[in-house]
Amino acid sequence: MAIGIPKKDKLLDDNQVELVYAHKKSYQEIINSDLVEYQSIYSHASPKRLYFGDNLDVLRLLATEPEICGSINLIYIDPPFATESHFLSRKQSKAYDDTLTGAMFVEFLRERLIWLHQLLSNHGSIYLHLDEKMIFHIKLIMDEIFGAENYRNMIVRQKCNPKNYTRRTYGKTADFILFYTKSDTYIWNQPKVPLSENSKKEYQYIEPETGRQFMKVPLHAPGVRHGETGKPWRGKMPPPGKHWQYPPKTLDEMDARGEIFWSKNGNPRRKVYLNEHSGVGVQDIWLEFRDAYNQNVKITGYPTEKNPDLLRRIIAASSNPGDLILDGFAGSGTSLAIADEMQRNWIGVDHSIEAFKTILNRFEHGIKPMGDFVKSSGSNSEEVYIQPTLFDQGASDQLDNRAKRLDNQDTKITDFSIFVPSPIPAQIEDIVKTWQGNG
Fold first, then answer.
1. Percentage of residues in the chain with pLDDT exceeding 70?
2. 34 φ, ψ (degrees, to nearest 5)
3. Helix (H) / strand (E) containing 120
4. Cα four-point dihedral sign 327, 421, 375, 85
């Protein structure tokens, strides 16, 4: 006997999967929330903006601006990872708390994602950085808000070097980036990486006339065709069950240019030249972007600071110069500094005083190591993790090419506006005055 759930008792549509949890607000409850007033304490004509305050309040406010809402082409967010930890400076100044877990964390992020969806343009993309604790919960939320059909990738990133792991599990060296778009007409500039040395070895033939290396690939493809590509060419039919990749006329033109290799028994194959290969498309496992303090890269020392080249790849792939980019958890300001370097406009938001100071310091002095942050466990453990800097590692004379490129980026960024809640927090006002006095 078949047993099923009566349709009237179903929570979800047949084709819908939704995460259900305690105290989940309705869409209308979130959208109809009250606005918080913000005011500018440093103004510039540029569209670039830095907000100090709760990002939920800021996102609501931005959604009321017609020139902003629906105009952001790229969103990158690196929210807390639900680690139940506090991040402090050596002077015991709070960088930020990461204490929300479970349903509270999911709803915290869901509210913000709903507003981010409103702000994203129809050609826009969002990248959400998390670890394994909440990634699968949040993917369901992303499917709910952005649509499962707009899911593109779950990128696996190696975050650190392998460690001598003593727990009874495999070593944890990865975190994840969810990549969604607003629609199927999103901006996409295909990122590529150079061929590996092993791949280059496949180009084992030398063209005598030019000295160019090439490899031989078939001229046919699977499937029977009854049009031009299914007809004989030079008296030859494609192999059974296959068709020519090009019409006979195109094949003649390729042959006239010397792009077809003929074997001794008269079988044609296409030449693919090594010097014409622009690289291979980037895959969804990224091994080269470990956290900044795990590599010889100049860093500010702010907790969880990401590798600047990670941001370069994302920004280059999913935006164009002049586009507007938003980071709702700006932290050390890496995404904002790299966006500025790549000639994008940006909006950054953070509610941490230490983050705000770090960002202004970065804009004033460029990428300079600070190394003033530690992580204290939220449990009773006495273990404290010091966030190392480049100089802590004794590697100041071993900067790689990426870091050397940043040496040229130690220029001031002043063409942006600063917004804060009303009334103006006295400590923030003092920080901005000090920053202006140093300019």
1. 79
2. -70, 150
3. strand 120-130
4. negative
Q: What is the pLDDT of residues 82-110, one digit of tens each?
A: 444 444 444 445 444 545 578 899 999 99
Output the pLDDT for position 378: 44
Alpha helix (H) ranges present in 53-188?
55-62, 102-119, 135-146
End-to-end CA distance of the chain: 78
Query: Of 354, 351, 324, nearest to 336 (Cα)?
Result: 324
Residue 33 gets which letter from DSSP? P
What residues contact residue 73 under an 8 Å CB cut-off, 6+ apart? 120, 121, 123, 124, 125, 187, 318, 319, 320, 323, 324, 325
Sign (positive or negative) of CA dihedral 307, 313, 314, 316: positive
Task: Report how far residue 305's alpha carbon sits from residue 24's, in angstroms, rounded to the nearest whole number.
Answer: 31
Contacts of 299 (CB under 8 A, 6+ apart): 292, 293, 305, 332, 367, 369, 389, 390
- Cβ-contact 283, 309 below 8 angstroms: no
CB 389 within 8 A of CB 98: no
| Average pLDDT of span 266-282 | 93
CA 422 distance to own-chain centroid: 32
191-196: long-range pairs with CB below 8 Å, 24+: 191/281, 191/282, 191/313, 191/316, 191/317, 192/278, 192/279, 192/280, 192/281, 192/282, 193/279, 193/280, 193/282, 194/279, 195/274, 195/277, 195/279, 195/280
Burial of 22 (0-12, 13-18, 19+ CB in 10 A): exposed
Q: What is the pTM of this model?
A: 0.79
- CA 281, CA 295: separation in Å to the nearest integer? 24
Rounded CA-CA distance 262/259 in Å is 10
Average pLDDT over all residues of the chain = 83
Reported as a single tens digit per residue, the pLDDT across 240-260 is 999 999 999 999 999 999 999
| Contact predicate 244/251, CB 8 Å | yes
pLDDT per residue as tens digits for the range 342-359: 999 999 999 999 999 999
- CA-wise closest residue to 123 among 66, 79, 189: 189
CA-based R_g, the chain, Å = 27
| For the chain, domain boundaries | 40-191+283-438, 197-276
Tell whether domain 40-191+283-438 is in CATH 3.40.50.920: no
Question: In the numeric block, which tokens belong to residue 129?
Answer: 């950085």
Place of tokens 């994203």: 120
